Structure formats: C-alpha cells, structure tokens
C-alpha cells in the first residue's frame, strides 16, 4: 500500500477509535463514506493529504462543530447534543432526528389529529410517512377526484381517515396545508372558518403567507403557524423514508400562540421523514426556493444544457457525443462527486487539462450569469414571479398549456437523444 493509502487508512482508524466520535451508518459522517476516499484516484487523495497532516481527521471534524456540551456522541444509542453548526463561518441552528425519537413524538401528538390537505407529491409522501410513524393522520381532498382515487389506492378509507377538505380541517387539530400554491389561494376563504382557536396550521412552503397581498392567505391570530419544507420532491420524501434515510428540511415558525410551535414543527418534521431540519423564516425559505427552482436546480440547468448541446451540434458533433459531453457525464460522473465532497473534490478527480479549463472558464460564466440571478432574485422579492405563477396556474387551460410546454422539451433532440443514451447504461441493459 502506498504512502497516501497508508496515511488515510491510519486517519480512518483514528476516527473510528476516537472516544469522542462514535460514528454510525446514518451519522453526519459515516466511516463507510470516508473509507471510500482511499479507493479514489491519487489525484483525489492529494487534496486531503494536507488536511489530514494538520492535526488529523478527528481534529478537522471537531473544528467544524460548535459543541454546546462537553461531549459529542454520534452513536445510535446516544442522543447528540450539537445544535449549532458552523457553515462557512456562519453559525446556524440545526435540529436532527435523534432529538425526537418515535416514542417521544408519538407521546407529544397522542391527543392530536393530523389533517393533511392535498395529495400531490408532498401530500402523499408526508401523509404516508406520518401514518407509518404511528400518528393519527387523516386526509382531506375533493371527493371523487383523481387524488381521491389515488388516496384510496394507498389505503386511505373514506369516512374513516379520508374526508372532504372541510371535514378534515374541522376534525384536525393540526392542519397541514399541502395544496398547490394556486389551490391554497382559491380555497382559502372556504378553509379559514374551520381554523378555530388553538389549532395549528402547517405549510411546506412559505409562498401563500409571504405573498398574502396576492394570495389573501392571512392566518387567524389565535392559532400556531409553522412550516416544514423538505428540500426535495414529495416522492423523494417517501422513497428516502422507505430506505431508512431522511431528507433535509427547512423549519420555521410564523406565529407561536401556544408557546410550543417550534416543538410542533420540529417533531412533525421528523415524523414526516426529515433527517435534519435547518432553521429559517417563511420569507427566506420562499425566496431561496423560488430562486433555486428557476435557477440552477431546474431553469438555468436546462438553459445551460441546451446552449452547450446546440453549440456542439452546430459544429458537427453527433447527437450522442453532444449529449454525453453535456448531460450524461455531468449527471452520472461529475455531479455525484460534487455531492460527495464538494466542487474542489470533483476537480481533483479530473485530469489536469480538465481542471485548467474549468478553473479558467468558470469566471466568465459567473460574470455572464450573475446579473441574471440578481434580476431573478429581484423579481422573486417584489412578487413579480409570484403573480406570474398564480396567474398561469389559475388559468382554466393551464394543464393543457403545461402539457404542450413539457412535450416540447420531451420531443427536443437533446432529450430524445438522452432517452436512447440512458437505455444503453449497463444496469438498464442487464434488465
């Protein structure tokens, strides 16, 4: 074994044997993921050589936390005590699943009826998780609609735990409003009378409350208003739960009448499948969410993919080559490395030619796109994007118009090529 492998293997042993850090598979940092570093190319390992030499891995990890007590225990049988973490020099409050074991939140909510309104991706994912975690959950939907039929297929029983929207809100002590943003606006006047004193209103997006001038959603002053916003689709909330994992979520309190609003939010966040919950506000959540969706998470990435693909095609490259160099290599090889340990880690795992090109060209792209993001944020903050979204989503022909737009993307050359390329992946060919 060469010196690099010896160095990191020794550091791993140091980490595993430390009395201060007891790592479990679902901990913040698992020995499994760390040991995978020693299997990486030497170009990747070199990045961490100096970090390990500067006091060892345990010291590096220790310095990343602001420990609020004398011990930091990460084992399954022990309760972690870290509440404030250092993110790039800024301290933020983070809550975690171990703060609220199942027995604790079941006891906390033993007298509550959790009424989940809406059965889109978030409604279905969160309701099924909360039900599987032993809470008293009911679902409120328009009777005999598509979502009603889906809920019945998922085991919800009309008259027992599946009701009309107004019936569910009336029966619920904690009401999770997981309707679409447009539907929240349309149905608010019907829902509000059932949100009586002492109840709790829960959102998974700050949209309706923050943009109250456009939506008319103004919660009564005598109820708690909280938010748990999973950082992913409702389908991911459910799939991670079924895998025994947890999704990251934002958590916020808009109105605390009972004095227990934060506890309700965090406990519900754990019950619906969150592993970690990051404290925020309704406004910060909705601004960052809308910018992210229109930006690098969805809108900008489609624009960048398409621009590069079309440039390669215009210069004589085949569809498969253009797609592989634009999308397939990104999603299957490089982006997972970013997710694993950051951009510098991904760069370090590539050739020196690739590194040089990336380091030289990210700055022109930054300069070209920064003004676009600034304009986007401005339009999110002043409500322009919200008004456009509500107007579009409220149109009686919105569904048909949406299908046309999605079909245009589906039928475009880049994504028809992608369908063929994905079909050639070894794991798909073997099925």
UniProtKB/TrEMBL annotation:
KARI C-terminal knotted domain mapped to chain residues: 281-428
All residue ranges annotated as the KARI N-terminal Rossmann domain in the record: 91-280
Pathway: Amino-acid biosynthesis; L-valine biosynthesis; L-valine from pyruvate: step 2/4; Amino-acid biosynthesis; L-isoleucine biosynthesis; L-isoleucine from 2-oxobutanoate: step 2/4
UniProt keyword terms in alphabetical order: Amino-acid biosynthesis, Branched-chain amino acid biosynthesis, Magnesium, Metal-binding, Mitochondrion, NADP, Oxidoreductase, Transit peptide
Intracellular or extracellular location(s): Mitochondrion
Oxidoreductase listed as a keyword: yes
Source species, domain of life: Eukaryota
Top class in the EC scheme: oxidoreductase
Major localization class: mitochondrion
Protein's UniProt name: ketol-acid reductoisomerase (NADP(+))
Family affiliation: Belongs to the ketol-acid reductoisomerase family.
GO biological process: isoleucine biosynthetic process; L-valine biosynthetic process
Keyword presence, Transit peptide: yes
Names of the cofactor(s): Mg(2+)
SUPFAM superfamilies in the record: 6-phosphogluconate dehydrogenase C-terminal domain-like (SSF48179), NAD(P)-binding Rossmann-fold domains (SSF51735)
EC number: 1.1.1.86
GO CC annotations, alphabetized: mitochondrial matrix
Gene Ontology MF annotations: ketol-acid reductoisomerase activity; metal ion binding
PANTHER family in UniProt: KETOL-ACID REDUCTOISOMERASE, MITOCHONDRIAL
Binding-site residues for Mg(2+) 2, renumbered to this chain: 289, 325, 329
């Amino acid at each position: 074994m060469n010196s690099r492998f010896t160095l990191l293997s020794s550091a791993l042993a140091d980490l595993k044997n430390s009395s201060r850090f007891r790592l479990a598979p679902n901990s913040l940092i698992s020995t499994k993921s760390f040991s995978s570093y020693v299997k990486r190319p030497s170009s990747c390992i070199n990045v961490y050589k100096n970090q390990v030499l500067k006091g060892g891995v345990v010291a590096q990890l220790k310095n990343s936390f602001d420990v609020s007590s004398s011990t930091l225990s990460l084992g399954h049988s022990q309760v972690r005590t870290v509440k404030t973490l250092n993110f790039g020099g800024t301290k933020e409050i983070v809550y975690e699943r171990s703060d609220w074991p199942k027995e604790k939140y079941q006891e906390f909510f033993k007298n509550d009826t959790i009424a989940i309104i809406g059965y889109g991706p978030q409604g279905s994912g969160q309701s099924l998780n909360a039900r599987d975690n032993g809470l008293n959950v009911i679902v409120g939907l328009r009777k005999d609609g598509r979502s009603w039929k889906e809920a019945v297929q998922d085991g919800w029983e009309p008259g027992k735990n599946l009701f009309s929207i107004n019936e569910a809100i009336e029966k619920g002590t904690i009401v999770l409003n997981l309707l679409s943003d447009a539907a929240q606006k349309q149905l608010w006047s019907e829902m509000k009378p059932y949100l009586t004193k002492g109840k709790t209103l829960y959102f998974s997006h700050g949209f309706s409350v923050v943009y109250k001038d456009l939506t008319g959603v103004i919660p009564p002053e005598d109820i708690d208003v909280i938010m748990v916003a999973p950082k992913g689709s409702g389908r991911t909330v459910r799939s991670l739960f079924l895998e025994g994992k947890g999704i990251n979520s934002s958590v916020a309190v808009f109105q605390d009448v009972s004095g227990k609003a934060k506890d309700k939010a965090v406990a519900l966040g754990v019950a619906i499948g969150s592993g970690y919950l990051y404290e925020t506000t309704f406004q910060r959540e909705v601004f960052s969410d809308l910018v992210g969706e229109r930006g690098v998470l969805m809108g900008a990435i489609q624009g960048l993919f398409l621009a590069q693909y079309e440039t390669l095609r215009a210069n004589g490259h085949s569809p498969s080559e253009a797609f592989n160099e634009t999308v397939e290599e990104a999603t299957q090889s490089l982006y997972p490395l970013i997710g694993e340990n950051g951009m510098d880690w991904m760069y370090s795992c590539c050739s020196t030619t690739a590194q040089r090109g990336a380091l030289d060209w990210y700055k022109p792209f930054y300069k070209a796109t920064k003004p676009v993001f600034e304009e986007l944020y401005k339009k999110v903050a002043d409500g322009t994007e919200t008004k456009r979204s509500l107007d579009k989503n409220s149109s009686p022909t919105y569904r048909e118009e949406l299908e046309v737009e999605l079909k245009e993307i589906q039928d475009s050359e880049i994504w028809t090529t992608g369908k063929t390329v994905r079909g050639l992946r070894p794991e798909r060919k073997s099925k």
